Amino acid sequence: MIPREIPARLLRIAIVMIALFTLLALLVMVHTTPIIFTLFMFIGQPLLLLALLLLIGAVLADLKAKELI
Amino acid sequence: MSTLARAAALVAVLAPVAAWAAEDTVPLPRGWIGTTSEWVRGFGIAFALLNLALLAFAWRSLRSGGVTPTARGWLFVAVGLVPLMVAFLSFAHGLEGSTTVAACGSCHVMTPWVQDLQNVKSDTLAATHFKNHYIRESQCYTCHSDYGLAGTIKAKFEGLGHVWRYTVGAYELPIKINQPYPNVRCLGCHAGSQKFINASGHPKEEMHALLDGSVSCIACHGPAHPEQKRAAGR
What we know:
The structure holds two protein chains of two kinds.
Chain A: H1 5-30, H2 34-65
Helix pairs in contact in A: 1-2
Chain B: H1 3-23, H2 36-65, H3 69-97, H4 101-105, H5 111-117, H6 125-131, H7 139-143, H8 148-168, H9 183-190, H10 194-198, H11 207-211, H12 217-221, H13 226-233
Helix pairs in contact in B: 2-3
């Protein structure tokens, strides 16, 4: 049995990651410099990918905890 | 204040205004709604701000009731859907935006090059192309990247190297081009034009020398940048 707090905690981490990603993306669009764009490519986009994986993982864990899958 | 000083002050004030007005005299085409790049940027900023608001809602919904169907819905939109749109738009804008002269000039080591480029009194090759609008935009990138998709990819990887070396300080001053400037970049635009074909300095029998790089375009038409100019003058 997976404790109920784990998916919620994972999702909160995912939200923080997406917030960081969005801020970097906003920075790229407001003031594009090669350094900011590189940061967005190598930090922002992996954050997005990780957050998506966390979202999928948390939803699956939640469904499993509710014995729906 | 003497009349001469007053006149000088008036010219100093009016010259930039006149220059601005002169640039603004060309009316935009009828029905102008902006460029694709401007729209991408506008939508990108709007989606990013929307996403930050959605994230706040998702956070609140998660805090109040745990992983409920409502929270899942907010999360699906705020973490899964809108960020993908933001990623696409910011990537497209960043790719385009990093080719501008302003982007190249954002590293302070490039300041003398950019200043010379934009100096209307300079007679370097770069400044000549800039002030006469031979290249309309992204002037640094246009001359320093090869043609086609492979050229873009190569330029982006080289740019990554530049960012790394600039960040860790692994460069020597004065900045120099890392390989001889390839003639094909000049010929990509100039070869085939009537001015090029009819110029006495470009006889047909000498074309192979330009194509194989044994004669450089810069050798006759340079200096391309001020540092070369200074070196040539020594």
